[in-house]
Design a protein that fits this description.
Length: 296
């Protein structure tokens, strides 16, 4: 209980803002930094999180994170300062749903209750997603057992796009900024219909919607009027340098993808259905001291 209060207090100190929001330990202590295809050209670090379904534990991540792996393969989990390989069974949700369910050989995290339901989420509500962007961790030793703490980002639940009703494929759109490494992380919200501070998970981070724009290069000109039609139709292209000379921006013929701030995710429902088709996760039980051990 003391460790639980400590983590809640730590969360409040690290991640509180003007809205006094915080992420509770039933969320923090389920989020893991994972690595796939270590030592190969497909090596990637990402995020995964545990859910308990019918008394058994399962590991959730984005399907594209494990695209280079087979149905029975290995991933690495970061804990105790090192990467530890574990064998997992991998079940993938049908396209276009970017979610995969991994079956670990033993219970990985504490089983503090974390409900999975989107029933009371509201458009425009503040939500949070957790993960390890670029492999960055918060090494708060001892607070989360052997595991580092994930970083937290905040966004707005902007909308949802039904993609395939028969498959319960619904894309989540958040107004926020996603970065590589958050893929597979949980999207959580506070259920304001319940008293107290009740956090629920309702989705999985997939990526972000990019905007592909052309890049430009400088082309020296004699005067602001030298570019003729461009100076009249797109005057922003004509610029003056500090030394008094002028140049115009011209298209380079190349392009770059920019982060639009629209974060993509998927509702968790299809993963729960997939889990119930394969109810083979390890038992989710109270661990000694309510501390994740990383092994039975």
């Amino acid at each position: 209980m003391k460790r639980l209060l400590l983590l809640c207090t730590l969360a409040a100190l690290l991640f509180s803002g003007a809205t006094n929001a915080q992420i509770s330990s039933n969320v923090f202590e389920r989020v893991l930094n994972v690595r796939v295809s270590a030592g190969t050209d497909h090596e990637e670090t990402a995020t995964a999180f545990t859910v308990d379904v019918d008394g058994q534990e399962y590991l959730i991540t984005a399907k594209h994170v494990v695209q280079s792996l087979g149905g029975n393969d290995k991933i690495d989990i970061f804990g105790n300062g090192v990467w530890t390989p574990i064998s997992v069974k991998i079940f993938r949700c049908d396209d276009p749903i970017d979610i995969a369910v991994l079956i670990p050989p033993y219970q990985l995290t504490v089983n503090f209750t974390l409900p999975f339901e989107p029933v009371n989420i509201q458009f425009g509500q503040e939500v949070y997603f957790l993960g390890f962007p670029y492999g960055i961790q918060s090494p708060v030793h001892g607070v989360n057992g052997p595991y580092p703490l994930a970083l937290v980002k905040r966004g707005t639940f902007s909308g949802q796009i039904p993609l395939d009703p028969a498959k319960k494929a619904v894309m989540i759109l958040l107004d926020g900024y996603n970065n590589p490494g958050f893929s597979g992380g949980p999207i959580v919200y506070r259920d304001f219909s319940q008293p107290g501070y009740v956090m629920k998970v309702f989705g999985v981070i997939s990526g972000f919607i990019p905007e592909v724009v052309p890049t430009m290069t400088e082309h020296s000109i004699d005067s602001p009027n030298a570019a003729g039609a461009i100076a009249k139709s797109e005057p922003w292209r004509i610029r003056r340098r500090k030394d008094g000379t002028y140049f115009e921006y011209v298209d380079s013929g190349e392009s770059v993808a920019l982060n639009t701030g629209l974060v993509e995710g998927y509702f968790l429902d299809p993963a729960i259905d997939l889990i119930r088709k394969h109810p083979i996760g390890p038992e989710a039980k109270d661990l000694p001291g309510n501390s994740p051990t990383g092994a039975p």
